Amino acid sequence: MKMAGLLQGPSTALAANAALIKWLEDNGVYMKDSSGWTVAPHPLAVSTETVDEATNESTGRGLLARRSVNVGDELLQIPMRLCLTKDSCLESLSKDCAISLPKDTNEYLVIAAYIIHEKYLNPSSFWSPYLSVLPSTADVGPTFTWSAADLDQLSGSPVVAASMSMRAKLEREREALLGENGLDPELYTYERWEWAFTILFSRAIRLRSLKDGEAVALVPYVDLINHSAFSQCFVDAREAGDWIFKTGEDEVVLYADRGYRKMEQIYISYGQKSNAELLLLYGFALERNPYNSVDVSVSLRPGGGDELDEEKRDFLKRAGRGDEAIDFPCYADRYPREMLEYLRLMLLTRQDMAGKALDDFDFSRPVSRANERAALEAVKEAVQLQISKYPTTEEEDASMIRDKFLFASLSKNARMAVRHRRNEKRLLKRTQAALEKEIAEQE
After folding, report:
1. pLDDT tens, 135-150?
2. What is the dihedral of CA 41, 3, 284, 72, to 10 degrees?
3. What is the pTM of this model?
């Protein structure tokens, strides 16, 4: 990704960066670019803006290597007292804000309530230097925050239903939390709630090695790092101190997954996520994503008509599955074997059974030549059905992207939508081609 110079960019962004660095230094984090007593120079610096080279879209702030970095180097250490977790937020809400939430409240809800209070209701908040560098909802742009008109640009994509479901869930959870705990809805508005979850979904880290058990946390400075599907850089917690003296306190650490040149951007992986997941929660999608997939639905024949319907429904129930439609992720050139196993069951005939019970079958293996072909044809039909749901073709989307003047005139969300639906159709066509080849080999 391209990035703005360290000393360039809007003055407000530079001032916010400087305030964050000072806040970290004032609270015990070594941020200087020169060595201290037993302390190496801090190897990172904040870029005010980074840009995805594949799409030329802004990706916000990022962290750069201030000097050459070797694989395995510790890139930063942030004490847990500077991180926002459920426990720290519950304590602060009760002690400083006179808000007592039940201890069994979901960790995301607790942290959301606290950062809303600190950003909007506490002008002298200790956390202000950190909160000031957090992006707005529009800057991130996850699809669960998109307008109906913007979501229409994604028509046909499974991410539309996921976005609407997420929004409805957040609305229900806000209403429940406000109603049960007496929080003022005029202060904890839905817009603020939406911003808090935009921040949490796109920046929170699950720390698995804390001495008191794993926890979700907002980790200042660390959460400026952008995502790469190819990064193996990892963030976790450990006991602070050196090999001789341990403090007994936790700290968050980041290790380099490879060597980085001076001024090269540092990346971490947010996980093996499809573009739909990235767009839903993080507001971006990747042109090169080895984990990209598109959900395709399959189910029992609607309205019955299969003499084995009841037996199959009972079998699914015993296996812990309902008889409703099931979504399976299809990847470029391939589909999950679990989908084929499910369809072998769904398309099983009395003749295939040859007097045996359903429990006698191993659906991880072909049942019969006819059943196997039927299952493959069903996968192909499901993929084709998903392709047919898009109102535009892949070629039409590609033509729009190639028209640079027209494409640049679209809103950011519209550009994201066109790229995403184009890439979904491209992936599904490759899956379809792989299926046609597999079916031909059955003949």
Report:
1. 999 999 999 999 999 9
2. -30
3. 0.91
